[in-house]
Design a protein that fits this description.
With 296 residues, this protein is α/β, with parallel strands linked by helices. It is built from 9 helices and 14 strands. Strand 4 and strand 5 form a beta hairpin. The two termini are 24 Å apart.
Length: 296
């Protein structure tokens, strides 16, 4: 629908346009090669704001980010990890408190314990559909981490997902569901949708339901009704909080119970906020649609 704003932020959609950023110098990193892996062990500039790791250092492909490699880089806001990297070690980006977004390797298979723990500003990541292991504490205290894009290594296709982020367990549970949905051998969206039944936080419920109804690939009739029911059930609370933008999204998805519309208008009128104007306009549109249908 024209004019809609998706929960996936416009800023995050621009991540794929950042290819103009130049690679850091090889000398910016300390690496160790053990005959199998070429691992970044540390970065020299802990005040760096943006880091774009080169795919080769010392004439060898970079294959791993080591334990504690970027630990405490408090000014780092953006990171790009080359597609040669298959693993990110424990505490690798722990306490990078300014980190907001990143593009991780398309061949990444493992994210270690506490790898992004304490990244309190982290909102968005591009991840690999080859990712097999994420620890339950990999994203500890990342309460803003709500947007994931999954890149298919073979096709280059990128799919958007919303992540439940109100607890460490919710983040881990949703990332695992996303990995199952994007598995190159047996990915099905029902594995992602089923996880929604475990979500309790209302902010997470709203974001996930709205995004899924707007992007209904593989959505069953049963799960569609569950998403719609959750949105219908929160309409009254949204009005009481005067969250006009949420009410508008719910209305645009046709998830306002028309049998309760008059009571909603009455509640909104008593509140005196912005929701009443939207509800009156919604009622007018519905009445016009009804008249048009009747005339046919």
């Amino acid at each position: 629908m024209a004019g809609q704003t998706d929960p996936i932020s416009d800023a995050f959609r621009e991540v794929k346009l950042l290819k103009h950023r130049e690679y850091n110098r090889e000398s910016d990193f300390t690496c160790a090669y053990d005959g199998w892996e070429n691992t970044i062990q540390a970065v020299s500039d802990h005040s760096a704001v943006e880091i774009n790791i080169p795919p080769e250092i010392g004439g060898r492909p970079v294959t791993a980010i080591g334990n504690n490699a970027f630990l405490g880089c408090s000014k780092l806001k953006w990171i790009r990890i080359p597609d040669t990297v298959k693993s990110i070690g424990n505490n690798a980006f722990k306490d990078c408190v300014s980190l907001k977004e990143g593009v991780l390797s398309a061949s990444l298979e493992k994210i270690g314990a506490f790898a992004f723990s304490g990244c309190v500003s982290l909102k968005s990541l591009v991840l690999s559909n080859r990712l097999k292991r994420i620890e339950i504490n990999s994203f500890r205290n990342c309460r803003k981490f709500s947007e994931a894009r999954i890149k298919d290594m073979e096709t280059g296709e990128i799919r958007d997902f919303v992540v439940a982020c109100q607890s460490d367990n919710a983040i881990w549970m949703y990332l695992m569901a996303i990995m199952r949905a994007c598995d190159p051998l047996s990915g099905y969206m029902d594995k992602y949708d089923a996880t929604f039944l475990e979500v309790a936080d209302e902010d997470d419920i709203y974001r996930i339901a709205v995004h899924r109804l707007r992007n209904p690939l593989g959505l069953t009739d049963e799960m569609e009704e569950i998403y719609r029911s959750r949105l219908r059930n929160m309409v009254k609370r949204v009005i009481l909080m005067d969250r006009v933008e949420r009410l508008t999204a719910i209305g645009d998805l046709d998830c306002i119970d028309e049998n309760a519309l008059e009571s909603y208008i009455e509640i909104a009128s008593k509140m005196g906020g912005g929701c009443v104007a939207y509800l009156l306009e919604y009622k007018y549109r519905k009445n016009r649609i009804g008249l048009s249908d009747f005339s046919l």
